[in-house]
Specification:
By secondary structure, the chain is of the alpha/beta class. It has helices at about 5-25, 35-45, 55-65, 85-100, 105-125, 140-155, 175-185, 200-210, 215-220, 235-245, 285, 300-310, 345-350, 355-375, 400-415, 445-455; strands spanning about 135-140, 170, 190-195, 220-225, 250-255, 280, 295-300, 380-385, 390-395, 420-425, 430-435. The strands form 2 sheets. Strands 1-7-6-5-4-2-3 form a 7-stranded mixed sheet, sandwiched between helices. A 4-stranded antiparallel sheet has the order 8-9-11-10.
Length: about 450
């Protein structure tokens, strides 16, 4: 398996040909999932004692399995937070794999970690955090949020008064589901401010004032969102920062989706206050055009993260020795062995320069504005709220929830588009509405028009 022979050379060429085709294609079909039984019937047994051979397995991939995926970079894939990795970043993802770098410690991965850190310096500069702030790349926003909250909790528990207390954090219902998931993993309670609109300093103060004495004692952090996933709303970061400072609470900003927009002059002011955060999550695999998976967590005081996350073990001592000294990314998040997953971002930034990132993000914001105007001009459609960042929520007048579901399936079945419904809180009820999230700068006005035309 590890020998170099003709088969390997042919396989290398096949893989390169496939990758070049994928990277350079201008139109990709939107794939369609099949049931597991259907896929099994198409490909048969693939894991056998003697192997089925690389060529055969690769053909199964190309003919059947690849087609059961929906590429996130399709210009009419506007569901979830889609992605649109640059070609340079995708190519360097291949280089990252081929280079077999262990990205935990500088001693083994200095070259790769150096590149990651160059990209990280740019990301930190976008936040406006003070000198000394720094971060590391993680497997995604969930891991970044978890790393930040564990850091906050450990820092809080340095005070003996809080040892043995179960921590409590406050966020709003607009926060991403990963905040709740992460609170479960960290075994902290979570209190949700019941508004999907902007969380303000006043809302937060109001909530804190209603806590019992014991709850107040257990409260150690607040999570604000820098671009909610559902609607692109940026919380009142300035107001929340002030309350956190006054109440001595850790201030975390989850900008996993919206963080890419820190580069965009048109909306940068909406993030004012982020420079006061104790920690920030930004996912380069969302709006910084990196391939999966690449998140990042940034700390105002990285030493606090090191206290929380640095792993000890006799076989690890050498990596921390004076002679091995350099920056060790593993010390600042929950994972030990790690891919140098910031490397594709570095290569893409180095190739294109940061101005091109600004233009590509601004285009996503512009597409949301264009969609908003098209919806307003359409007699059967209505905006639920003004577009925010690159998210647009809109309703088809007269549609019931099942109409949205049917419409989504229909467009998906035809291989035309993936646009999914969501829910928006309207008073005490949740209304099913349609949602666009733009990331891919190659999405066109025509794409949006064609999608809206299928709603009549
Ligand atoms: C605001 C926000 N936070 C966290 C996450 C979770 O990130 P990941 O899926 O990379 O773990 C997402 C994902 O969409 C998000 O939008």
């Amino acid at each position: 398996m590890h020998k170099i022979d003709m088969d390997l050379i042919e396989m290398t060429l096949d893989v390169m040909k496939y990758s070049i085709g994928r990277i350079s294609a201008t139109e990709h079909p939107i794939g369609k999932p099949k049931k597991e039984e259907e896929l099994k019937a198409l490909v048969g047994e693939t894991i056998t004692s003697k192997g089925i051979g690389g060529e055969y397995a690769f053909n199964l991939w190309k003919d059947h399995l690849a087609k059961a995926n929906v590429p996130v970079d399709h210009p009419r894939n506007l569901a979830f937070v889609p992605a649109s990795p640059t070609k340079a970043a995708i190519m360097f993802d291949l280089v990252t794999s081929a280079s077999s770098i262990h990205g935990a410690y500088w001693m083994e991965g200095a070259g790769g970690i150096f590149c990651e850190n160059e990209a990280m310096k740019w990301m930190v500069s976008l936040t406006g955090l003070p000198k000394g702030a720094f971060g590391v790349f993680t497997s995604g926003g969930t891991a970044a949020n978890l790393s930040a909250i564990v850091t906050a909790r450990e820092h809080w528990r340095e005070n003996a008064e809080f040892l043995g207390e179960k921590g409590l954090i406050i966020t709003s219902i607009g926060a991403h589901s990963s905040i709740k998931a992460m609170a479960k993993v960290a075994d902290v309670d979570i209190l949700l401010v019941d508004s999907e609109e902007k969380l303000t300093g006043e809302d937060l103060m109001h909530t804190i004032k209603k806590l019992t004495t014991h709850q107040r004692k257990r409260l150690f952090a607040v999570v604000a969102t820098g671009g909610t996933t559902n609607a692109g709303i940026i919380d009142d970061l300035e107001g929340v920062a002030q309350v956190c400072e006054q109440e001595q609470l850790w201030f975390h900003v989850d900008a996993a989706y919206g963080g890419g927009a820190l580069v965009a002059d048109s909306v940068r002011h909406l993030f004012n206050g982020i420079e006061k955060a104790d920690s920030i999550t930004i996912d380069p695999h969302k709006w910084m055009f990196s391939p999966y998976d690449c998140g990042a967590v940034i700390y105002k005081e990285p030493e606090l993260a090191k206290n929380a996350h640095s792993q000890q073990g006799s076989y690890l001592d050498i990596f921390k020795d004076e002679g091995a000294h350099g920056f060790n990314p593993t010390d600042y998040q929950i994972q030990l062995t790690r891919r140098v997953r910031g490397l594709p971002l570095w290569f893409s930034l180095a190739t294109h320069g940061t101005d091109r990132y600004k233009e590509a993000v601004e285009r996503g914001i512009e597409l949301a504005q264009i969609a908003g105007r098209l919806i307003e001009a359409h007699p059967q459609l209505e905006l639920v709220r003004d577009p925010s960042l690159s998210c647009v929520l809109y309703r088809r007048i007269g549609w019931e929830p099942e109409d949205y579901t049917h419409w989504t399936y229909e467009n998906h079945r035809k291989g035309f588009a993936l646009v999914t419904p969501t829910k928006w809180k309207n008073g005490d009820t949740f209304e099913t509405v349609s949602r666009f999230c733009f990331i891919n700068p190659d999405t066109t006005q025509r794409d949006i028009e064609m999608i809206l035309d299928t709603m009549v």
